[in-house]
Each structure stands twice: as C-alpha cells, then as structure tokens.
Amino acid sequence: MAADLSQIVKAYDVRGLVPDQWDESLAELFGAAFAQVTGARAIVVGHDMRPSSPGLTDAFSRGAAARGVDVTHIGLCSTDQLYYASGALNLPGAMFTASHNPARYNGIKLCRAGAAPVGQGTGLTEIRELVERWTDADADPGADFGAQRPARDAAPRPGTAADPPQGTITRADTLNDYAAHLRALVDLTGIRPLTVVVDAGNGMGGHTVPTVFEGLPLTLVPLYFELDGTFPNHEANPLDPANLVDLQKRVREVGADLGLAFDGDADRCFVVDERGEPVSPSAITALVAIRELARNGGMGTVIHNLITSWSVPEAVKENGGTPVRTRVGHSFIKAEMAHSGAIFGGEHSAHYYFKDFWNADTGMLAALHVLAALGGQAGPLSSLVAEYDRYSGSGEINSTVTDQAGRIAAIKAAYGPREDVTLDELDGLTVSSADWWFNVRPSNTEPLLRLNAEARDEQTMTRIRDEALRIIRA
Fold first, then answer.
1. Has this prediction a pTM greater than 0.85?
2. What angle do CA 467, 468, 470 make, to 5 degrees?
3. What torsion do the CA atoms of 358, 359, 364, 370 make, to the nearest 10 degrees?
4. Among 91, 113, 316, 352, which is most buried by a count of CB atoms within 10 Å?
5. Which CATH superfamily, name and number, covers 195-277?
6. Is the dihedral of CA 324, 258, 452, 349 positive or negative?
7. pLDDT in tens, 95-106
8. Which letter does DSSP use for residue 299 in this model?
9. Mean pLDDT, all residues of the chain
10. How many other C-beta atoms can be found within 10 angstroms of the C-beta atom of residue 226?
11. How sure is the predictor about 140, in pLDDT bands with cuts at 50, 70 and 90?
12. CA-to-CA distance for 108 and 343, rounded, in angstroms?
C-alpha cells in the first residue's frame, strides 16, 4: 500500500519525526520526485546540525543523482545560506532542517531556481503524490518518470530498460560568498563600535555569525555557538520567551548594546535591547522597511502579514511606501513579493524578506540593518525602536487543541453577530474593531491554535486576549 504522507507534507515544507514518520528511504524518493517536478539538470542541497540531517541529505542527493541530476552539496548551512546558493547559482534547492522543532524532527524546505518557493500549489503537492505512489509495492516509478525529466535523460529511470546518465554529487563551500553578499547590502563600515550578544541556541547561527560579523566594528559575545542538534541548553525557538532568558541576562551582565537570538536554522532573528527587553518583530519590520524605502528613493511596496502590528503599515505609509497585507507563511510572502515587486517584507515571527535577496527570508540581513541603524546614531536601541512600538500586543500565544476548525468556528459564532466588529478569513480568523484586533489561525506543523491580539491600550488588549483564550481553551 502506498504511504500516506499527509502528516509530514505541510503547506510549505516537509516536516516530521525521524525515523517514525520518515527516513532516508523516503528522503531518496523525495529527491527523485523533486528532480522530476522541477525538471532540473542540477540542484543545490544543504543541511543543519541535527543528527539525522547528513544522512537524509545524502539520500535525497542520491535520489536526484540517480535521475541524472547534478547535485551541488554545500554541507552545513543556515536556511538563508541555502537560499543564497539557490539564487547565486540559479539552481533549485533543498534545505534539510526542522527549524525550531525538537531534535527528533527533521524536514525539507524546497525552492526552485532563484530561491522561488515550493509549497502547496507550486509543486509540493505533486512531489508528495509521486513519493506516495512510488512507495506502493505494485507501482512502477519508471512509468511516472520521463515526461518532465531533464531533456538529456531520455531513458527510463534506473532499473528499467535503459538507465539515464548518473548525475554527479560535488561538494562546495558558499559561506564566505554568502557573508560577502550580505555585507554588500548594508554598509556598517562607519558605525560606532557596538557590543552584541548573540544566542545561536546551538543552531546554525553558530556557523554563520562569526563569518558574517568578521571585520565589523562589533564586540561579539557568543552564547551556545557549539553546533548540537540535540539542543542541550534550550530550544532554538526564540518566539518562546523562555528561550530568551539566557540572552537577556547576558546582555545586562556585559552591558551590551543589544542581543540577537537565532532559531535552529538561523533564518529568523529576534532582537533584545540594551535593557534585555525583547523588541517586537513588528518594530524591527517597521525599522527595516523605512531603511529599505530610503534605499529605494522613498518609494516601494512593503509586505506585512496579517498579524504584524498596526504600526507597520502606518510607518510604511508615513515614509512614502505602499503596505500590502498578506497571510502568514514564507511561501505565501515570497509569492506576493514576486507578484507585487515588493522591496521588503516582514512577519511577526521574525522572518524578514528582501528583494535584493531573491525575495527570500534572511534574519541575518535584518540583523545587519538593526546594527547599522543603531550604530549610525548615538541613542540606545530602546529609544530607536520606541517610535514603532505604538500599541499593546499580546505576542503569539499557542494553545494545544484537538479540533482546530471547531474552536475557530466557536469564535466566529461568538463575534459574528456583533455590529462593532468585522471578520476576515484571509488566514484563520481575524476579528477587528476600531480599537483592537485579534487573529486565531491553526499551525501547519503542530496541533495548535495561535492567537495574536493588539489594542490601543494594555487594558483593552488584556480583555480581548482573555476573551479569545476562554473560547479557544473551552
């Protein structure tokens, strides 16, 4: 019987427990399916520091190479370093990571040439269907292969009448080129000296930060830079305030100008100020958006997802830009970036997207913008970002539920009849009034509902947040 991959193929990536839900044999089939769906002659692959990542990456590479595809293997890398390689080499890419998930998880983030996203509707569904079909004992993978294969591979797949040429697998190192590209996009040569604490969470930030920061006027204080996919110190998920505690403490101890926290695959970056207080990703989005607008003559489109603060579209408009609201998720943001020609995009989860980075997300480039903005003036970070912290927000609150759709329906039933609110189902359910809003949406990777609320004052936010949570957790 064919495998059912519905539990691990998500809206915009593959993610699940290893080896319970997927393993190297499935990874090899994913490589073959990726080769077929993209029609690529060559691809680039990389992986994070999880114990299962090298084996899964090698299996995926074998699957692609067996179909005549040449594979460039860049080894240990951050997700945005893989996107850099996809863009610079103009090749489809595969990044093996489960981002912030616990150690037993792993996954694949896929992209077409130029870091263009692969998600549901852009190839991931077709990849899943092929892998499921090929796991059926009675299926003939060779029968599926041919119509979309690279032109040089006119023969059926290995094991049939005529084998295609075997693709090559070569190793390459892109770290220095990645770092040079980022530094070319943000000028930090004239900033005042800064002390920055960086918590890599034993993730890929420990691999990329030393090279990116080399030669800059920064005193780097590293925390947990040792690559360790078992995450011995804390989860590599800075969205959870518990995982910022060590960074906050260290910033205060050394009197640093700021702190940076990266997630496991180092594509997201969270910021704390000189007091050790977290800076909202919405404030960072507004700050970077204004800098990108200035670089583009005070004009341009800026994407923000629907759970960023009201302050983001306000700041964009105040600085001559055009804000565009979209749903949450990197494949959706990237598609809207390409469609609208946006110069920048930001999410509440600390994903930041740049036109000059192939519309892909890179927390490292956002961090360089923050360093440049802070080092280009005399005041502390808390004062610099105060302008973009205009409202009271709840942050993202996760609730484990057994019936995501049922709980959202209950909220809709509670607020739908009210004349003072509007309902929006662009992504989950957004309930808005003149003085507040909240959004509830299901996680694509876990049995969770995610709540974000904002209001013009703390008291109103607390009331609205608690009302929504009572329904969600009923």
1. yes
2. 70
3. 120
4. 352
5. Alpha-D-Glucose-1,6-Bisphosphate, subunit A, domain 3 (3.40.120.10)
6. positive
7. 999 998 999 999
8. -
9. 93
10. 11
11. low
12. 27
Three-state DSSP class for 333?
helix
Into which CATH architecture does domain 14-174 fall?
3-Layer(aba) Sandwich (3.40)
Give the position of tokens 């040792």. 226
Handedness of CA 264, 237, 13, 157 (dihedral sign): positive
Please give the pLDDT value at position 148: 43
Alpha-carbon span 322 to 313, nearest angstrom:
8
Answer whether 195-277 and 281-388 agree in fold: yes
How far is the C-alpha of 83 from the C-alpha of 257, rounded, in Å?
30
Interatomic CA distance for residues 86 and 206, integer angstroms: 22
Q: Is 382 a catalytic residue?
A: no
Q: Please state whether beta strands 322-326 and 422-424 pair in parallel, antiparallel, or not at all (unpaired).
A: unpaired
Q: What is the pLDDT of residue 189?
A: 87
Our separate counts of H helices and E strands in the chain read 15, 22
Catalytic residue among 99, 280, 331, 392: 99
pLDDT at 154: 33
| Residues near 177 by beta carbon (within 8 Å), at least 6 away in sequence | 84, 88
Domain locations in the chain? 14-174, 195-277, 281-388, 395-472
**pLDDT for 374 beyond 80:** yes
Q: Which residues pair with 47 in a beta bridge?
A: 76, 96
CATH superfamily placement of domain 281-388: Alpha-D-Glucose-1,6-Bisphosphate, subunit A, domain 3 (3.40.120.10)
Phi, psi dihedral angles at 349 (to 5 degrees)? -85, 5
The topology under which CATH files domain 395-472 is TATA-Binding Protein (3.30.310)
Collapse the DSSP code of 109 into the 3-class scheme (helix H, G, I; strand E, B; otherwise coil) and give the result: strand
